[in-house]
Amino acid sequence: MCLIQSAPQDPNATWNGEYRVRQVQPLKAFRELFVLELEDCSGSREVRYRARLDEAGEPELPTVNDVVHVHITHTQASGGGWYDRVDRLEKTTPTSALRLLPPRICPEPEALRRLHEVLETEIRSEPLQRFVDRVFEDEETARAFATVPASYDCHHTEAGGLLVHSLNVLEYLRQMPMQCDLFQRECVLIAALFHDIGKVAPRVQRHKSPYWNREHALLNKLMLEDALSGLRHQDPEAWSNLHFLFDFLAGTVSGNRILESQLIIDFDRYDAGTDTRERAIATANPGDSIVVKQPSNGGSKRVFFLPSHAWKSEEQTKLAAG
């Protein structure tokens, strides 16, 4: 199955996939012809569908928000031009909640697609795939994870910043050689993705937790409680590994059991630090050599020493570059 924005557009190319129906519009000239707008995490596309007629002569159609599996041909119209024709359509139950998240819910439109492609490449264990899917099946959690900032005054402060930061940490880690086995590596990657999911707790749990927002590492397992519960029966080893990894991130156990767990913290700090530094430089006054960021959540101060070239004039910069 291909993502809808990756569908081939070569003459007479065929493709299939699972998508959500966003719109159903009749073609005025033909009673049984309709334009369907189908979407997934990569975007949306209009296709043409010839509906079957029931005994009363009414077209049998999918409805908005239905999930359908379609087979499509990119074909030429009689008057010229090309369009996507639905050859077969079946209503189905979703096989991936992440795949069907509409990108319009995320302020960073490419982030959901990037995340889907990374996980599809890196996570081979079916129980771990199902774990991720359970997390995104909770619509409120999924929307919060895709829309909230990673922090409000330090790093990735824009809407959607949490997803971007989490994806950055995941992508750093996937490029690192690891000495653990492949299964543990997949667990480490999933823990990296959700290392900050506790930050959505104030929106989703609505203060039902005894922890403060700055204690988000203690909230990670609370936000993943249902998904972890399902994993416990499907794959006890995966369940145990993820419990350990999130306990390590919360600071309640050492990282000796899976040494690669330390990499999550290292890349978390690196990605957060580089983004904070960029924002510090952007807001510094000309001539400043030091910028201090004080998180509003009571964390330690971030002190950045600005490079001298930060205040060179554009003309000086060009001269230095030769």
TrEMBL record:
Residues 162-273 form the HD domain. It holds the Pfam family HD. It comes from the Bacteria. This is HD domain-containing protein.
